[in-house]
Model the fold of this input.
Amino acid sequence: MSKVKAGGSSKNIHNNAGQRLGVKRFGGQKVSSGEVLVRQTGATKIAGEGTYMSRNYTIHAAKDGVVTFKKVKKTLFTGRNVPRTQVTVL
Done:
């Protein structure tokens, strides 16, 4: 005879809302200062000229202009180079 009761299964517990991550303004679009350009988890895209990154890695426009995306190589602390996309506002 078991000392522990059966645990059972709960099936309807994963009903959280999505985080609405992703690119919000695409290359070539005009933006004004303060607009959200990219919402992300971790720095998969990095902030370039005319942009800044907030605490939760969201990239905002620092000035009015046109959004551009560019592939760059970022050197990590270990010396390894990794590809990143740089977001700039010109």
Q: What stands out?
A: The chain is about 0% helix and 40% strand. The chain has a mean pLDDT of 92. The beta strands are 22-23, 30-31, 36-39, 45-47, 51-53, 59-61, 65-75, 81-89. The longest strand covers residues 65-75.
